[in-house]
Each structure stands twice: as structure tokens, then as C-alpha cells.
């Protein structure tokens, strides 16, 4: 095993004078305690000697500290070093003999002139050293060898289920943005301010409007009540005088009383929610294995006799258009996506999806305790809104104390104004509200109706609890009618284009032409892609038999759950939503939110590209962008040249694959639409967005309206190829199958993934692996179903597809042997079929290694510089750089949940599994056949 030499410095005496030492042991005594007065020249020379000694001590300290860290485990047994010997025979691959030998100290000698001693290299070297666990044989468990030191020095934060290198980078990126925000002046920009100044002012105003929770709490529910009033005005009231249970819409007896605070979510439910989320992501990024179904012709569904109601259809249409334009999903959802099944995947077409609810997936609607909790949350929200919407305030008579309570919640100024108004009219006979004890309009308790008799109206909380049970039942029926995510997000099953006229017949309760016209698209769509046609029949049937007040309650609930996060933490509606979120996320009751993180996320949502520009200016450079593009081009070139030599791919398929590889568009750092480097471009992009530092809710709403408008404006047009789906500060990367592009934001081009100052083998080993991963997605079992133009097409020969599947199954079987431990220490195995696409993409590391080797032509160049304290070869450092990015700690419950739902294998197996199949790694570390990291060839898999 190759590793740094033990220290060979022969100097063991202290570098500074020891007062207890004899004169012969104190070489500096002659300078500081001379036997005679020193001349000026002697003093100067003495001072120079001290400076040189101090400098020498710094360098010796660096090396000694590094060596001490490296030999922490072995130091207990004396100075020893691992020596790796490579013995090549004609029969087998390179093998390694391991053994420890004690070496005698020898002079260090003249430092290697290729040794990199820049601050960046010293920091990098220190980081690598601290990540290692050198008590482990790298040929047995390379992940532990490369990351064991990191794991020993880190822990999982209390509010998280895992913590790893990705989280570290994300946290560091947030610190950069906070530093930027703190540096922006608080004063409003002048009228003649530059585009840059105005952009920065908007950035700070968004953050300040979110972080000022005292003001948000003072504002209260008012902005949401105004929106709820609008729904009531368009569609009708949800708070009617009396709500009677019905056999169809009140089935709360199934779940009432089943929830208590000791309840915790079953792992199966968490897994179902994550599966839905991952598959939705996979559709966009080509990261899941989609089975190709038998071709079928779409047919119009035959409905029962729908009862037309033109007035009601108009109200539903207007309500849905109003909600959808504000990002609130309900009943049916329309999306603008590329036409993957058409001739041009870049043309943005209209897709129709089923509704999604307030719970993470349809499985949650069958869990009785969750339904009980969900009903109580909706009841609390509806009760709060019912007591404050203008409709009920006009119709109902309230007492003085209720009005004062409402006013106090809205702020001191409003309360004071109400008090002054009441003093003016208190003696007036036309006083509109009965005083407590005033029986002029009923009985002596002020509870009578206008005729003096007893009212039969139920208390508002009882009415809203009944309504909440009906809303939950209605929403559950919607979820039951929808397709499972494996079908809904499968591009083959979900691609069902119909004419717009046909879809209108399939959804008789919705006036689609009127609905579409409200979004003012540039062109009227001739076709609509229906992702799950049977859903249209079910939703039509359900709406036909649903009372208006239940539909109104459903609409208002969807609105409240969507915008609750924009309210102050102490506002009742926000607290109800958080009560639900905490249970769904497994967060301990009473845990305070990290407001800074919350507001940075909102900054991304509202004004993310301006924040991205500032991040790029602080943490990225044009040179880094050019270097990243160079790395990707080198990987694509290496892959393209390798394709004709892949044994299982015939010449026709290899040629098509080369064509597709050449068509891949790499995007590095930041988008050009809007142009992140141009403040004027960003000013224009957000020009219609008015930001008010005292109106956070309004900022969220305005931003949503702007984005929806921008999205609908693209309907029927070709997508702008300069646009991105991520902001520059995002720690992620993706391959988009219909767009044929691989994207790497500046946020992920940070240590330990990338630094321009690193030697090439480290840049290729870390970032190059990420780039090769995304490129390989274009040729895995999902991406391979899209041709070079991003269209769903069969472009491989049948024999190549067969041979590919055989090798893909080899990978699936291999990874199915890997596992994590649950809380009881039992093994839970990876589903190799679920992770197959990502596992195959990880094998792209081979292309990154080949690309790096192709770029190394001069061993004396910067690319061959050595790092201080590290006696690893360039090849070994390449693989260390790769393994380091997968460093992660995970709680058992989180590990089990992710292994059942995440299309990515656990991070340790992503490193180990990839390297087990890579001969270049075996040679680099001299791992003999049969060792943990070099299994017999029959147990290895190779695709690309």
C-alpha cells in the first residue's frame, strides 16, 4: 500500500532555546548572551539567522504535522511505513505483496521541485490527510480508507437524518450568500442607481422581508384572508350555516381519534413519499429505469350521464384559472413541458396531470392516524379563515370582544382605530353589533335570531370540523383516482396526446378554451398530452356529486397550504401547517425552524438568479468555467473514441451513440438566459417584479405570478437553450434527456468537488467523475431511450439492447448484494433494479480516468505537481478525490428509508461498487485478485 513516508528529519532537538539546557545544547545562546559586545554586522547576521531558522521551523512544522497525522495509528509501534511492491507476471494482472518494515531515518534531502507549496495545495493536502483512515487496507475497504477520518471528526446535526460532503458544500455556499447580503447597504437605491445597485437592493429587500418575523407575525393572516375572500367571491362560500354529514362525504368515523402525539410515521409511508418524489425527478433527469409498455392507441373515455350546469362550470373554470396562475394545484394540473414524443422535443407543449394533495403520496390517504391529524389541521385552518373572511363578517353579528380580539391580532394601530370608532357610535341606536348582555335583538344572552327566537346555527369550530372531514374524504377520492408514480412519471405510459377538443369533452366541468385564454398564451395548443386518461372520468364523476361548499373548502384549503409558509411563524394557519409538516418529516414537536435557512431558500425561489450572480462573483471565475468545459470536452472525447471498441455494441449502434455524444450540450457555472454575468439582463428578467421590504407575502405572490406568466408565454415555442432548471448556487447537477444537455451549476464546482488550483488528477477525479456520471446517464437504461434530438425513439439495434440489458442486470445483481443496517443492526439490502440507472452512470468514472490520462503529456507540468505530506501517486490521488465526495454519515432510519426509495445507492457503495469494477483502480493500488476491492472477474461488471 503506497502512502507517505515516515518522517526522516534527523533534527530532534527543540528549535527554540531551552533555559535548562547546557551551552552546547543551545546554539542560539551565543547570539542572545554573547561573551563580548557584537558588531553591527554580527548583529545583522544574527538577526538574519533567526529569521531563517523561523522560516525553516514553519516548513519543518508543516511536514512534521502532516507526517504525525499520517502515522497516528502506526506511531504506537515505532516509525514504520507501508511499502507497496508491484510484481508483474505473464499470467496474471498486477499483484501486490503487503508488509510492514521498519525504516531507519535518513536525511530528507532537497525537496522535489514539483512539490506544490501554494496555500491551496497545503490546505488540500491537509484536507485529504484528515479524511483518511490509514489503519484500513485500501484494497479491502477503500471507502473507509478514504473517508474514515472525515467520519470520525463529523457528526449529524440534530435536525437532519444525514450529513455528508454535499451538505458541507451547501452550508458553505449559504455562508457566502449571507456574507454578500450583509455587505449590501441598507439604504434604498437612488433614482439614477445602476442596474447592479438596484438588483442588490432587491436581493436584500427579499431577505429582509422574510427575516423580520416580528413584522410578519404582526401582519398576521390578513394577506391570506384577502385571497380566500377572492375564492369565495368567484366560487361561493365554504362556511354555510349548518353542515350535515352525508353518507358520501363524511367518513371521518374511519379515522377519528386514531392519532396521538406518540405516533410516528411507518417507514413504508416515508418510502412511498420519497419514491414519488424521486420518480418525478427521474422523468425530468433521466435517472430511473422505465419499462417500455406495449404500444396502445389512446381512446376517448365513455362517461356516465354528466349533468351539465353552465353556471357551475363557469365558476369552476374561473376558480381553477385563478388558483393555477398563483401556483396552487387543484383538481387537475397543467404543465408546460417539451414534446418528447413529437418531432421536436424542444417545442413546449401542454401536459395535463392528475391532482396532488396536501399529503406526500396517495399511500398516506390510507393511514388512519395521518387522516385524523390532517383533518384536525384542515379544521384549524378553515376555522381561522371562517372567523375572518369578509363574507361571514358581513352576514354574522359579532360581539365587541370578538372584534377587539381580531383587531389586536392585526396590530396595535388597527385596534386603536377600532376603539376610537366604537367610542363614536356606542350610543347610536344603529349600533350594528350587540353588546354583551344586550337583548334588544334576541334573548337576554344576545344569541337569538332576528325574529327573537333561538338560532340553530352550529358553532363555527363544529361546522368547520365537519367540513374538514368532507374535504379530506374528497381529496382522498382524488388521490385514489390517480395513477401510481411508476406509471405517472414513466414517459412511455404518460405520453398520451389528444386533441384539445377531445380533452374538453373528457372534462365537461372545465371550459378549457376559457381556462387557457386566461393565461394569454402566444398560441392556442392543438393537442394536450394526458398523463393518465382514466383520471379524467373519475374526477368528472366526483365533482358532479360534490356539494359546492365542499369544493369551496377544498379550494381554500389548497390555497392556505400553498401559502402558509409565507406567513409569520406565530400565525395560526402557519402553525397548523407546521404541525403537519413536523409529523410528516419526523421532527420533534417544538423544534424551532432555522429562519436563516428558510429565508435563503425563499431568496432562491423569488430572486434566485440575482443571488446566483453574487455567488458566482464570490466563488467562481471565468477561468474555472473554461476549465470545467475543458474537462467535460475531454471526457466526451474519450467516451466517443471508446465507443467503437465496446464489445457488446455493434457498429450501427456505436455510430448512433457517437452521434448522440457529440450532440450533448454541456453547461457550466451559470445560465445565459438570464445572463448571470450581466446586471442589466438580470434587471430586465426581474423588471416586472416589485419587491417590498415590508410585504414578504406580497413578494412571494408576485414572484409566483411572474414565473407562471413566463412559463405560459413559452407554450408552443421552442425552448430557449440558454435557460436552466437550476440556479448557479445550487449544489447539484443533471442530465435532461429531452433537452440533451448536462448541467453543472457553480454551486457544485466547489471543494471537495473542484478547485481550479488543484492538479489535474484531482480535478478529474472529483468533478470529472460528476461530469462523466451525467454524461453516462445519456446512455443508461433510461437515457438510452432518447435519441440525439431528445426524442423518445428506439435507436439501438435489438441485439445491442439485449446485450446492454444483460450487462445492466449484472450491475443490478451486484448492487443487490450491498446493504445498510437498520436500528437493530439487521441488514437491509439495496434494490439493484431501482438503483440501476445511477449505478451505471457512476461507472462513468472510467471515462473520467481515461480523459485525464489523455490530457497528461508533460510529467513536469503543473498537472504532475505533488502535494506536501502525501506520497501517493497521481493515479492513487485521482481515486482518493473520487471517494472523498461520497463521505457521509446517515442515521439508521434514514438509511433504511432511502434504500427503499432512492434511485441512488448508499454513498459508501457508490464508491466501493464503482471501484471494484475498475481495473485502473486495482493497478493504482496494487490490489491483488481476490481482495475486497478486486473480486474475481466473474463477480465484476463492465458496461462502458
Automatic annotation (TrEMBL):
Keywords: Hydrolase, Membrane, Metal-binding, Metalloprotease, Protease, Transmembrane, Transmembrane helix, Zinc. The keyword Secreted does not apply. It holds the Pfam family Peptidase_M13_N. Residues 138-232, 310-394, 461-671 form the Peptidase M13 N-terminal domain. Residues 732-941 form the Peptidase M13 C-terminal domain. The chain crosses the membrane at residues 44-66. Residues 437-461 have a biased composition (Basic and acidic residues). Residues 1-29, 433-461 are annotated as: Disordered. Its cofactor is Zn(2+). It comes from the Eukaryota. The keyword Metal-binding applies. Belongs to the peptidase M13 family. This is Endothelin-converting enzyme.
Amino acid at each position: 500500500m503506497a502512502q507517505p513516508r515516515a518522517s526522516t528529519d534527523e533534527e530532534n532537538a527543540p528549535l527554540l532555546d531551552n533555559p535548562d539546557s547546557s551551552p552546547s545544547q543551545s546554539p542560539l545562546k551565543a547570539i542572545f548572551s554573547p561573551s563580548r559586545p557584537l558588531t553591527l554586522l554580527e548583529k545583522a547576521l544574527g538577526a538574519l539567522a533567526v529569521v531563517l531558522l523561523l522560516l525553516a521551523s514553519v516548513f519543518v512544522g508543516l511536514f512534521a504535522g502532516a507526517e504525525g497525522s499520517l502515522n497516528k495509528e502506526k506511531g504506537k509501534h515505532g516509525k514504520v511505513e507501508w511499502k507497496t511492491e508491484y510484481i508483474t507476471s505473464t499470467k496474471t494482472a498486477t499483484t501486490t505483496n503487503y508488509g510492514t518494515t521498519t525504516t531507519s531515518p535518513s536525511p530528507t534531502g532537497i525537496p522535489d521541485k514539483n512539490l506544490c507549496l501554494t496555500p491551496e495545495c497545503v490546505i488540500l493536502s491537509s484536507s485529504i490527510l484528515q479524511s483518511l483512515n490509514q489503519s484500513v487496507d485500501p484494497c479491502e475497504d477503500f471507502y473507509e480508507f478514504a473517508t474514515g477520518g472525515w467520519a470520525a471528526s463529523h457528526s449529524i446535526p440534530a435536525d437532519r437524518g444525514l450529513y455528508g460532503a454535499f451538505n458541507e458544500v451547501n452550508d458553505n455556499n449559504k455562508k457566502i450568500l449571507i456574507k454578500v447580503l450583509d455587505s449590501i447597504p441598507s439604504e434604498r437605491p437612488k433614482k439614477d442607481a445602476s442596474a447592479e445597485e438596484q438588483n442588490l437592493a432587491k436581493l436584500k429587500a427579499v431577505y429582509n422581508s422574510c427575516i423580520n418575523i416580528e413584522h410578519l407575525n404582526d401582519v398576521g393572516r390578513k394577506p391570506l384572508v384577502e385571497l380566500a375572500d377572492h375564492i369565495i367571491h368567484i366560487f361561493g362560500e365554504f362556511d354555510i350555516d349548518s353542515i350535515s354529514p352525508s353518507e358520501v362525504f363524511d367518513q371521518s368515523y374511519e379515522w377519528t381519534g386514531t392519532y396521538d402525539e406518540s405516533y410516528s410515521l411507518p417507514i413504508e409511508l416515508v418510502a412511498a413519499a420519497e419514491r414519488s418524489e424521486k420518480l418525478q425527478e427521474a422523468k425530468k433527469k433521466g435517472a430511473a429505469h422505465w419499462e417500455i409498455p406495449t404500444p396502445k392507441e389512446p381512446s376517448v373515455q365513455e362517461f356516465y350521464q354528466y349533468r351539465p350546469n353552465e353556471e357551475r362550470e363557469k365558476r369552476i373554470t374561473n376558480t381553477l384559472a385563478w388558483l393555477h396562475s398563483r401556483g396552487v394545484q387543484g383538481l387537475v394540473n397543467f404543465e408546460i413541458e417539451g414534446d418528447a414524443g413529437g418531432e421536436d422535443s424542444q417545442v413546449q407543449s401542454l401536459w395535463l396531470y392528475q391532482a396532488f394533495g396536501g399529503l406526500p403520496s396517495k399511500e398516506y390517504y390510507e393511514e388512519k392516524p395521518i387522516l385524523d391529524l390532517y383533518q384536525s389541521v384542515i379544521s384549524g385552518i378553515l376555522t381561522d379563515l371562517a372567523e375572518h373572511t369578509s363574507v361571514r363578517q358581513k352576514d354574522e353579528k359579532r360581539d365587541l370582544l370578538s372584534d377587539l380580539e381580531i383587531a389586536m391580532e392585526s396590530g396595535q394601530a388597527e385596534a386603536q382605530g377600532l376603539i376610537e370608532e366604537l367610542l363614536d357610535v356606542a350610543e347610536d341606536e344603529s349600533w350594528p353589533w350587540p353588546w354583551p348582555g344586550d337583548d334588544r335583538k334576541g334573548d337576554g344572552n344576545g344569541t337569538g335570531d332576528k325574529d327573537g327566537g333561538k338560532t340553530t346555527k352550529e358553532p363555527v369550530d363544529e361546522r368547520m370540523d365537519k367540513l374538514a372531514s368532507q374535504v379530506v374524504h374528497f381529496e382522498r377520492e382524488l388521490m385514489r383516482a390517480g395513477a401510481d408514480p411508476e406509471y405517472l412519471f414513466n414517459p412511455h405510459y404518460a405520453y398520451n396526446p389528444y386533441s384539445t377538443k377531445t380533452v374538453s369533452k373528457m372534462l365537461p366541468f372545465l371550459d378549457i378554451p376559457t381556462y387557457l385564454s386566461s393565461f394569454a398564451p402566444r398560441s392556442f395548443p392543438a393537442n394536450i398530452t394526458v398523463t393518465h386518461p382514466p383520471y379524467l372520468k373519475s374526477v368528472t364523476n366526483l365533482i358532479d356529486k360534490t356539494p359546492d361548499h365542499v369544493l369551496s373548502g377544498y379550494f381554500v384549503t389548497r390555497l392556505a397550504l400553498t401559502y402558509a409558509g409565507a406567513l409569520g411563524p406565530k400565525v395560526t394557519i402557519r402553525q397548523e401547517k407546521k404541525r403537519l409538516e413536523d409529523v410528516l418529516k419526523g421532527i420533534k414537536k417544538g423544534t424551532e425552524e432555522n429562519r436563516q435557512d428558510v429565508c435563503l431558500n425563499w431568496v432562491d425561489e423569488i430572486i434566485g438568479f440575482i443571488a446566483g450572480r453574487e455567488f458566482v462573483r464570490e466563488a467562481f471565475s471565468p477561468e474555472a468555467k473554461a476549465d470545467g468545459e475543458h474537462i467535460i470536452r475531454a471526457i466526451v472525447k474519450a467516451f466517443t473514441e471508446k465507443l467503437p471498441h465496446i464489445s457488446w455494441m455493434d457498429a450501427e449502434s456505436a455510430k448512433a451513440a457517437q452521434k448522440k455524444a457529440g450532440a450533448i450540450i454541456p453547461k457550466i457555472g451559470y445560465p445565459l438566459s438570464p445572463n448571470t454575468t450581466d446586471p442589466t439582463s438580470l434587471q430586465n428578467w426581474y423588471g416586472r417584479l416589485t419587491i417590498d421590504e415590508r410585504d414578504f407575502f406580497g413578494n412571494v405572490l408576485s414572484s409566483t405570478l411572474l414565473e407562471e406568466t413566463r412559463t405560459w408565454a413559452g407554450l408552443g415555442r421552442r425552448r430557449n437553450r440558454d435557460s436552466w432548471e437550476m440556479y448557479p448556487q445550487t449544489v447539484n447537477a443533471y442530465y435532461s434527456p429531452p433537452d440533451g444537455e448536462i448541467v453543472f451549476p457553480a454551486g457544485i464546482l466547489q471543494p471537495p468537488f473542484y478547485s481550479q488550483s488543484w492538479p489535474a488528477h484531482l480535478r478529474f477525479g472529483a468533478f470529472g467523475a460528476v461530469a462523466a456520471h451525467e454524461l453516462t446517464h445519456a446512455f443508461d437504461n433510461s437515457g438510452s431511450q432518447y435519441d440525439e434530438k431528445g426524442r423518445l425513439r428506439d435507436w439501438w439495434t435489438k441485439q445491442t439492447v439485449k446485450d446492454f440489458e444483460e450487462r445492466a442486470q449484472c450491475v443490478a445483481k451486484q448492487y443487490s448484494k450491498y446493504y445498510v443496517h437498520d436500528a437493530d443492526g439487521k441488514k437491509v439490502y439495496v434494490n439493484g433494479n431501482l438503483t440501476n440507472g445511477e449505478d451505471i452512470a457512476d461507472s462513468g468514472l472510467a471515462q473520467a480516468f481515461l480523459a485525464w490520462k489523455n490530457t497528461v503529456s508533460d510529467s513536469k507540468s503543473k498537472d504532475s505537481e505533488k502535494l506536501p505530506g502525501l506520497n501517493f501517486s497521481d493515479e492513487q490521488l485521482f481515486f482518493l478525490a473520487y471517494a472523498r465526495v461520497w463521505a457521509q454519515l446517515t442515521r439508521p432510519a434514514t438509511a433504511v428509508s432511502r434504500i427503499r426509495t432512492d434511485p441512488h445507492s448508499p454513498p459508501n457503495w457508490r464508491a466501493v461498487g464503482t471501484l471494484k469494477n475498475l481495473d485502473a483502480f486495482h493497478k493504482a493500488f496494487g490490489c491483488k485478485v481476490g481482495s475486497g476491492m478486486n473480486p474475481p472477474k466473474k463477480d465484476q461488471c463492465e458496461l462502458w
